[in-house]
TrEMBL record:
Chain segments carrying region Disordered: 1-21
Species of provenance: Streptomyces racemochromogenes
Transmembrane segments: none
Gene Ontology terms: biological process: methylation
Name of the protein in question: Class I SAM-dependent methyltransferase
Amino acid sequence: MNREQISKLAHTHHPIKSPLNDDSVSSLLAKALPRGDERVLDLGCGSAEWLLRALATHPDVHAEGVDISESDLEEARQRAVRLGVDARLTLHHQKAEDFTSPHPFDLILCVGSTHALGGLLPTLEAARDHLAPGGRVLIGDGFWERTPTPEAIEVLGDFADLSTTVDRITAAGWTPVQGHTSTRQELDDYEWSNWGTLADWALDHPTHPDSPQVLDWATTRRTEWLRTYRATWGFATLLLRPTPA
């Protein structure tokens, strides 16, 4: 079982692949889609959960998603058909950095997927190229709530604190107009769901050849979370507009 398959399995009960609960997602989408007829792009959409929710709740929205995982995109296609929104969803199997479009977008999403474009600021630069006048960007990324240990940086990467993160965003020409900082409950629920789901699957399939690998992965990641970064890592989702020159 490769990392993509393990990730898909881990998110079985938490399809938003970031530490946000359903109410937070709904609130952010309501703020990001003020007209209700926007054209939306998700860079690194995975199984397109954000897009599917936007389409299901806003019948005049049209959406496009870009991802390198054909299995995730196929899952999104099937769910779109079941939800009756497939006519308003277009999916592209390619790298986000290679995506081009003949038209701009009113809302660009990248929540928990900035690594697909090289990080937070490169993602914002890519989004700017696709953004329509008056458009918005909804971006979600991690930050350090407290000074991390070297071990935490090794596991998760080199983030900044929240104030520095926002300073970098504003210096790059963006103005935050809304935001959500994931609560401790959201952060914990996300981690427990991921690693608990993997452990459950392994214990339910003891004779499966991948069972030991999956259980070891779940145990390792749960331990890293509890011992290495739980006390220091946070997640913020920001709604941004370009700052006038």
